[in-house]
Amino acid sequence: MPLFDFTLRNTTQTLAANSPCWYWLTDGSYNICINGKRLLSYNPAISTANERAQWKQQAAAGGLHAYEPEYYVVRLYEDVLAEALPYTWNNVSEMQHQCLLNPTVYRMVSEECDDRLLFHEDKSLYDKCHPYCGQFGSGYMMLPEFRLWRYADEIYIYWNGNGKNPHGISWFQHTGEAVFVMDAGAFLREVEDFHHRLMNAMAEHIGQVQDYCIRHPDIPAAVIFDYAFVAADHERRRQSLDKALRRKQSANPDFERDNLNAGIHLRQLLAEYPHAVEIVRVVDF
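-> structure tokens emitted (285 positions)
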């Protein structure tokens, strides 16, 4: 499995529910896969037996995996390029690394930054003092907690799948908390692979949509489908990775000093609130 796995909804189901523009044609399901675990998969127990049957039936009708987030795949793709990749080029300091490894301290420092610095007259101070990391997001879907950063030329991915619904039932099939570690080059290759797989799948999908609309000229999608416009948007999207590769965030080398000046004592927090998380080497996706 790749790190970023996805399946596009089949043409019939896609056009039944979406306008035929590039963004909406990415309707499908997706997952983040590490060491053989599909970490976004939902726990079937959050639904009733009837709801589970309906869920599986609808997923099968669309050619999708059951119990996975169903949304526009491009949302995960855009967040990987904009909210994760830029944070993988430069190493964080030892102090930032220790704060990011400790989820309790990370949350406390984040809250201190919100309370003390969000409206500070020095607008740059918030970014200087907040722990430097990227995120995996995906629109409005319920997801585990993810953060990632680079330290000693490796990528660290914090994962917390312990979220529960209002009834106390775990949201996800895989629960737990860990920090996954992988080679920086391997992570970049997975991002590039995600890009190429999505672009190739969408090129094929757009052709299928065009053929379907020609064969079914009376459906609403056929009336408004503009192949030239969608193809031009696809060409623009194909260039997204090259643009993203040029956006490289820099970690603050004075992270500890700036926090001290803001009244946030990082070493004291780390000493008072230990929170050990298992560190797991990524051996497969």
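The mean pLDDT is 96.
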